[in-house]
């Protein structure tokens, strides 16, 4: 990397760390036997319509975010976690609690396990807990799809082979925050602390066990203009397709508490992406994928000030179209969306690029 | 090739110039946009992302890209200027981050240098950068600098203008961002050469019609303001889908109108007035103008000419510290010396008509003085109280701006004006002997000034207008009586008439600094002429200078220049031994006195300190040193 970029990275790292401040130590006390969150939604499971359960396990949170590296510039998901490391039994109890949601549901089911960190990190999820959770899933024949989240550094042959063994022929995907194809954007704008090579290695390892890769693509990290962000997301999806990623999950940045993004946003130095940009990326993604990858997007805080938003008048319709597209994978639901504010967005693409003044 | 040439003329830091890209020359100040281009609007766009609007050269910005090799240099056309890339908001992340913005640009520059000459580039300056870092920017070799405005008119926008004031003078200055039409005169005034009008599109997209001093949301079918522009003629019959283009065209017209107004104002020396008149656009705008006035006074003053239009409007509180106004007060305070032998100091009110002597009221005052003191009028030091100049010694009543300023004359003065006046008066009277007697022949606001100063006045003070106006019969009688009394008491007897000496000497001090009057008008100087036309001053049989009533200033002869040279003020040193032709260009100037302002009378010397010419400056002393082009001095007399 260029020398000046390394210096910028260092400044960003410090600023991210500072923005996080003491928020980690002031996390709410939570019942260690209950997950941070869980919810079910209709979802596409394989080629059928089914139900997906999403679980956010309450853990000590992402190792990167807990470290001096400060974590990512936009993420404070780990604030949903707990201060003290839960025991294996407690973590399994969290999982069981969440699974109650599926009691009355019919196959096919999909289970997504989030941790606000890495499910494959032994420090965060003890091996015994992980094996027990996977064993419980294996017992349930309705579950056809399992999605686990992890940073690439925890992906290894031994872990993946045991996961494959436990889950049998189920569809497995590892959700991983590729965020951007560009090492510079991932490093400077996101402070992600891994490079494309690590992602590629993890992807290759996963392939060996017929485990798919669900790549999280970030739309509009800080320090990029709307158009930089749009083009970066599209370039990332193109590369993801080349690499053989199985699912693209597009994540428009939302302003989370105690992050560098929030600090910038509060002072008018950041605006979450326009929903038009989200739509544009999804359209492109759909055409790039050509049916090879699943493209999903559920804009957190969509239509709200802290999330991807447009003018306020059209937001609900557009967020709904985005949800429809994620469910149906049919790009025609993204066509014919319109609103007066589209010309404002077009202006922003062009003028923010030239002026480098944040357009709110 | 990208070249910026600064043209002739000044009104504050405002300037005109030529922006030359290949065979295309744009006259500055210039607008820039991404959606339209013309002779007066240069196009811009991001390389690899926007297509050029026309064959004409444009400003291309390099986007931030992850690999510098990704920059699509081949797409940059030979004559386009190149704006270096940065990361949006990076500078706001930490106090040192601005330095990184520069470091990154420098690194990009070094990478692209093989194909793009640094002189073609424009460097981005974050509004939160430190002024010290601006000086180092010359290392880049860029021909211009881009400053960004968020349109809030707050600390960041002030920051951009402040940083601009630290920029090397030769650099082209670009203002980008959210710039409302009402800000254009101020940006022009503070020396921006190219101004981004992208906001016209932003506003149009929001259904907003911009005006010179505000904005109006347009909803078709409801009422809206009348506008005479061709775009708005279409509004009545417009459909919703036409609205954007109509508003854009209107907004564009507003920008064109206001830049044209601003340029004309500069030509006629009224740009400062135009800027002051924008104060009422909004409280935020007023704050910005005031902040610029207060914080950037040295920058603005340095480029404000010492001559100006025949009538200088001085209207609101923004004018109290306008550069020519404050400079006048400063010069009178620091350069004017009290003439000897003035036992009476007469304070008079100003008049609407300039010079004061031409006014009815002052003619009456003079008649009274003549009648009371026939032959001894020169023993009275006349001081005219006025706002916001403070006071004007009679000898200086014709010099700019005393002879030209035009104020509302209702006589209602605010506390700041009274404080300015009182301060000037106290300072002025300290220069006179304590045994002199001050006659305050003033009433109303002028009287308030004297009263405010009274406790700090050492001389005896007589009020001659206890009630009523200064021009009333009673007041004039009282004045005459007081003068007659004082003539008795102070036993004022005859003496030489010293009016001409007084004028030339005081003007010399004002123009060239303290002591210049004694040099140009020694005891044995011979003066002849009329104060209202021309006064010639001769020393030892050689003319040294002439006082020209029209401008109230002195023109030097070579002999006069030689007499003044030892004072080491207002000098311009040439690299050449002698002057050729009628002008001196900045390129030929080796050094110059930084005290020189555009319009000053200057003394031209060579490397051996010989006075080789005298003339009138066309730029400030620092510009003569820093600029490589442009006319520095118009020669009046030179050594043959």
Short note summarizing the structure:
Chain A is built from 12 helices and 8 strands. Chain A has 360 residues and is an alpha/beta fold. Chain A has a single domain, classed as Aldolase class I (TIM Barrel, Alpha-Beta Barrel), CATH 3.20.20.70.
CATH architecture field of the largest domain in chain B: Alpha-Beta Barrel
What kind of assembly state do the chains in view correspond to? heterodimer
Indicate the radius of gyration of chain A in whole angstroms.
Answer: 20 Å
The main sheet of chain B comes to:
8 strands, parallel, barrel
Order the strands across the largest sheet of chain A as they lie in space. 1-2-3-4-5-6-7-8
CATH architecture of chain A: Alpha-Beta Barrel
Strand content of chain B: 15-25%
Let me know the average pLDDT of chain B.
Answer: 94
Report, as a whole number of angstroms, the end-to-end distance of chain B.
Answer: 40 Å
Distance between the termini of chain A: 31 Å
Percent of residues in helices of chain A comes to 40-55%
Per DSSP, the total helix count of chain B is 18
Name the overall outline of chain B. Answer: globular
User: Briefly, what CATH class of the largest domain in chain B?
Assistant: Alpha Beta
How is the biggest beta sheet of chain A arranged? Answer: 8 strands, mixed
Number of domains of chain A: 1
Protein structure class of chain A? alpha/beta
Classify the secondary structure makeup of chain B into a structural class.
Answer: alpha/beta
What name is given to the CATH topology of the largest domain in chain B?
TIM Barrel
Q: Averaging pLDDT over every residue of chain A, what do you get?
A: 95
What does this structure look like?
Chain A is α/β, with parallel strands linked by helices and 360 residues long. Chain A has a single domain (3-355), classed as TIM Barrel, CATH 3.20.20.70. Chain A is built from 12 helices and 8 strands. Chain A has helices spanning 3-20, 63-66, 88-99, 127-139, 157-167, 183-189, 196-208, 226-243, 260-266, 275-289, 315-328, 342-355; strands at 37-45, 48-56, 109-114, 143-149, 171-179, 212-219, 247-252, 294-297. The longest helix of chain A has 18 residues, at 3-20. Chain A starts with a helix and ends in a 5-residue tail after the last helix. Chain B has 3 domains: 2-295, Queuine tRNA-ribosyltransferase-like (TIM Barrel, Alpha-Beta Barrel), CATH 3.20.20; 312-489, Rossmann fold (3-Layer(aba) Sandwich); 523-638, Archaeosine Trna-guanine Transglycosylase, Chain: A, domain 4, CATH 2.30.130.10. In chain B, the strands form 7 sheets. Chain B has an 8-stranded parallel β-barrel. The chains are: A alpha/beta (360), B alpha/beta (640).
């Amino acid at each position: 990397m260029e020398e000046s970029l390394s210096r910028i990275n260092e400044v960003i790292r410090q600023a991210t760390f500072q923005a996080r401040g003491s928020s980690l130590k002031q996390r709410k006390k939570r019942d260690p036997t209950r997950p941070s969150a869980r919810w079910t939604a209709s979802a596409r499971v394989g080629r059928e319509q089914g139900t997906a359960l999403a679980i956010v396990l309450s853990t000590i949170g992402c190792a990167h975010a807990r470290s001096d590296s400060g974590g990512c510039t936009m993420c404070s998901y780990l604030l949903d976690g707990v201060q003290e490391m839960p025991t294996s039994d407690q973590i399994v109890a969290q999982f069981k609690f969440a699974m109650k949601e599926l009691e009355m549901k019919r196959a096919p089911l999909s289970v997504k396990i989030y941790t606000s960190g890495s499910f494959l990190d032994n420090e965060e999820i003890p091996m015994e807990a992980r094996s027990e959770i996977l064993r419980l899933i294996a017992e349930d024949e309705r579950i056809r799809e399992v999605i686990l989240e992890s940073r690439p550094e925890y992906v290894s042959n031994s872990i993946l082979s045991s996961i494959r063994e436990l889950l049998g022929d189920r569809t497995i995907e590892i959700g991983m925050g590729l965020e951007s194809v560009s090492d510079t954007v991932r490093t400077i704008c996101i402070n992600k602390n891994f490079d494309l090579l690590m992602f590629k290695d993890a992807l290759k390892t996963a392939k060996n066990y017929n485990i798919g890769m669900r790549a999280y693509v970030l739309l509009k990290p800080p320090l990029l203009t709307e158009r930089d962000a749009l083009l970066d997301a599209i370039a990332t999806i193109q590369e993801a397709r080349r690499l053989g990623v199985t699912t693209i999950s597009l994540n428009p940045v939302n302003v989370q508490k105690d992050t560098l993004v929030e600090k910038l946003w509060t002072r008018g130095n950041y605006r979450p992406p326009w929903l038009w940009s989200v739509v544009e990326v999804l359209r492109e993604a759909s055409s790039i994928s050509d049916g090879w990858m699943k493209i999903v997007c559920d804009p957190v805080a969509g239509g709200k000030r802290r999330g991807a938003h447009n003018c306020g008048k059209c937001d609900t319709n557009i967020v709904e179209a985005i949800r429809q597209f994620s469910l149906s994978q049919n790009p025609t639901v993204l066509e014919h969306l319109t609103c007066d504010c589209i010309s404002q967005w077009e202006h922003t693409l062009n003028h923010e690029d030239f002026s480098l003044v944040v357009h709110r | 090739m990208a070249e910026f040439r600064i043209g002739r003329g000044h009104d504050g830091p405002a300037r005109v110039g030529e922006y030359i890209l290949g065979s295309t020359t744009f006259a500055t100040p210039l607008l820039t946009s991404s959606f339209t281009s013309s002779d007066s609007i240069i196009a811009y766009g991001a390389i690899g992302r926007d297509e050029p609007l026309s064959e004409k050269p444009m400003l291309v910005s390099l986007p931030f890209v992850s690999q510098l090799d990704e920059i699509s240099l081949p797409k940059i056309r030979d004559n386009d200027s190149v704006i270096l890339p940065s990361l949006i908001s990076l500078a706001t992340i930490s106090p040192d981050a601005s330095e990184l913005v520069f470091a990154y640009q420098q690194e990009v520059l070094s990478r692209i240098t093989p194909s793009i000459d640094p002189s073609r580039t424009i460097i981005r300056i974050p509004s939160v950068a430190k002024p010290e870092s601006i000086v180092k920017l010359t290392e880049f070799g860029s021909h211009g600098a881009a400053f960004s405005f968020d349109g809030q008119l707050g600390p960041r926008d002030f920051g951009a203008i402040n940083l601009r004031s630290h920029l090397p003078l030769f650099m082209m200055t670009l203002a980008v961002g959210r710039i409302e039409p009402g800000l254009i005169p101020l940006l022009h005034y503070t020396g921006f050469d190219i101004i981004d009008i992208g906001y016209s599109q932003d506003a149009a997209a929001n259904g907003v019609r911009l005006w010179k001093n505000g904005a109006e949301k347009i909803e078709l079918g409801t009422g809206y303001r009348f506008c005479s522009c061709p775009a708005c003629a279409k509004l009545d019959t417009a459909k919703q889908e036409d609205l954007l283009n109509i508003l854009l065209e209107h907004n564009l017209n507003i920008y064109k109108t206001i830049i044209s107004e601003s340029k004309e104002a500069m030509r006629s020396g009224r740009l400062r007035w135009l800027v002051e008149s924008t104060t009422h656009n909004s409280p935020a705008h007023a704050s910005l103008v005031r902040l610029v006035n207060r914080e950037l006074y040295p920058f603005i003053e340095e480029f404000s000419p010492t001559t100006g239009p025949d009538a200088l409007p001085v209207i609101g509180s923004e004018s109290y510290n306008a550069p020519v106004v404050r400079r006048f007060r400063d010069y009178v305070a620091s350069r004017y010396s009290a003439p000897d032998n003035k036992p009476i100091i007469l304070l008079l009110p100003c008049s609407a008509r300039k010079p004061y002597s031409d006014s009815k009221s002052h003619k009456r005052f003079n008649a009274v003085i003549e009648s009371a003191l026939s032959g001894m009028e020169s023993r009275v030091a006349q001081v005219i109280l006025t706002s916001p100049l403070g006071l004007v010694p009679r000898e200086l009543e014709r010099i700019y701006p005393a002879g030209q300023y035009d104020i509302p004359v209702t006589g209602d003065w605010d506390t700041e004006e009274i404080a300015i006046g009182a301060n000037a008066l106290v300072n002025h009277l300290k220069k006179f002997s304590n045994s002199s007697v001050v006659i305050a022949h003033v009433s109303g606001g002028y009287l308030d000034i004297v009263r405010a100063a009274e406790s700090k006045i050492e001389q005896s003070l007589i009020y001659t207008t206890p009630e009523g106006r200064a021009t009333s019969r009673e007041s004039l009688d009282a004045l005459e009586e007081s003068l007659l009394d004082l003539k008795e008491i102070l036993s004022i007897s005859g003496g030489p008439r010293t009016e001409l000496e007084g004028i030339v000497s005081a003007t010399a001090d004002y123009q060239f600094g303290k002591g210049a009057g004694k040099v140009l008008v020694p005891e044995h100087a011979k003066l002849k002429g009329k104060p209202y036309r021309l006064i010639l001053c001769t020393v030892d049989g050689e003319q040294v200078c002439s006082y020209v009533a029209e401008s109230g200033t002195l023109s030097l002869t070579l002999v006069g220049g030689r007499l003044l040279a030892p004072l080491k003020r207002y000098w311009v040193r040439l690299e050449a031994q002698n002057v050729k032709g009628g002008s001196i260009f900045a390129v030929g100037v080796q050094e110059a006195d930084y005290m020189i302002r555009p319009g000053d009378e200057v003394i031209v010397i060579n490397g051996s300190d010989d006075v080789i010419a005298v003339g009138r400056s066309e730029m400030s002393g620092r510009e003569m040193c820093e600029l490589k082009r442009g006319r520095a001095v118009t020669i009046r007399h030179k050594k043959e």
